[in-house]
């Protein structure tokens, strides 16, 4: 179990995104010098706790280009296990807000769908991947941004990408990760495989027929990782038979339809008060409210 000094290091390093683990340029704050300055100790005092954290698998180190430094230096990253250990030791009232990567829209005040956002964000936080579709102007992007905000408040890392007519898996990954990006679905999903991470693809209907199949394959691969995936698209969506996703259709005022029950759950159709959903979503009924 980490001692107090080691927990201070873990908590500090956990505040930096996992995307830095493969970044070419990294901030000085995660170098030995930056750690020493933050903790108010000399560098030599950090060697024993850092070595112990590495031996426990709670921290990893590598050499990278530190912004503003003339040469590559050793930097440190908290592993997933290290982040979990830090979270257990951090009081909930001091919970650190997550961070976002990519062109996430500014938060817009949402009226009438707060309970719906709460229910869907809970599903995402449990690892579900969701296809959110509906007619133009129904508020899909606003709902998606609200979902992202809810998870950011829980300390999640949100990676946002907007699909365009010429978008392919590599360009989408470029918005998600920034810098040098992988191009194959295997490499992209491996890079995305991280707990408490939400991948968002907005305006998915913009994808061209030339790339829609490869984008769908990439999204399906990402849905099989530890990350949650939220795909936002105008109806009808451009993908055929997406596996690994729960489909939620946002219809006109007063209508939400949840489709595609996961295997092993109920397949019974139910309806009530303008809300239409398969049996797997019946537990959501009281929470789903639209106006």
Please describe what this structure looks like.
The protein has 291 residues and is α/β, with parallel strands linked by helices. The chain folds into two domains: 4-94, Orthogonal Bundle (Arc Repressor Mutant, subunit A); 99-287, Rossmann fold (3-Layer(aba) Sandwich). It has helices at 4-13, 32-39, 47-55, 80-88, 114-125, 140-152, 169-177, 185-192, 209-223; strands spanning 25-26, 59-66, 72-78, 99-101, 130-134, 157-162, 197-202, 228-234, 246-250, 256-259, 269-272, 275-278. It has a nine-stranded mixed β-sheet, with helices on both faces. The protein is elongated, with a radius of gyration of 21 Å.
| Helical segment count | 9
CATH topology of the largest domain: Rossmann fold
Low-confidence stretches: 252-291
Helicity range: 25-40%
Architecture blueprint of SSEs:
Layout (H helix, E strand, L loop, with lengths): L3 H10 L11 E2 L5 H8 L7 H9 L3 E8 L5 E7 L1 H9 L10 E3 L12 H12 L4 E5 L5 H13 L4 E6 L6 H9 L7 H8 L4 E6 L6 H15 L4 E7 L11 E5 L5 E4 L9 E4 L2 E4 L13
Parallel strand pairs: 1-2, 4-6, 5-8, 5-9, 6-7, 7-8, 10-12
Antiparallel strand pairs: 2-3, 9-10, 11-12
């Amino acid at each position: 179990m980490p001692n107090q000094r080691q927990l201070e290091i873990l908590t500090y390093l956990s505040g930096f995104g996992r995307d830095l683990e493969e970044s070419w340029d990294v901030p000085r704050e995660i170098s030995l010098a930056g750690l020493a300055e933050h903790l108010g100790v000399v560098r030599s005092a950090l060697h024993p706790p850092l070595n112990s954290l590495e031996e426990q698998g709670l921290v990893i180190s590598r050499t990278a280009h530190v912004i503003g430094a003339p040469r590559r230096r050793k930097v440190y990253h908290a592993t997933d296990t290290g982040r979990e250990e830090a979270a257990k030791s951090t009081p909930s009232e001091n919970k650190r807000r997550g961070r976002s990567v990519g062109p996430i829209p500014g938060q817009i005040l949402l009226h009438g769908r707060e309970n719906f956002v709460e229910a869907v964000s809970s599903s995402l936080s449990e690892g579900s991947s969701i296809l959110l579709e509906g007619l133009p102007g129904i508020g899909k992007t606003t709902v998606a941004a609200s979902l992202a905000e809810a998870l950011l408040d829980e300390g999640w890392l949100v990676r946002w990408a907007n699909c365009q007519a010429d978008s392919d898996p590599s360009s989408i990954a470029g918005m998600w990760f920034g810098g040098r990006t992988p191009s194959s679905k295997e490499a992209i999903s491996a890079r995305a495989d991280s707990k408490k991470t939400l991948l968002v693809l907005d305006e998915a209907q913009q994808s061209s027929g030339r790339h829609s199949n490869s984008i769908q394959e990439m999204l399906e691969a990402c849905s099989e990782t530890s990350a949650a995936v939220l795909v936002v698209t105008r109806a009808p969506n451009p993908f055929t038979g997406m596996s690994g996703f729960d489909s939620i259709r946002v219809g006109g005022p007063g209508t939400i339809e949840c489709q595609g029950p996961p295997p092993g759950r109920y397949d019974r159709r139910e309806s009530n008060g303008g809300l239409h959903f398969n049996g797997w979503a019946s537990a959501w009924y009281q929470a789903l409210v639209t106006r």
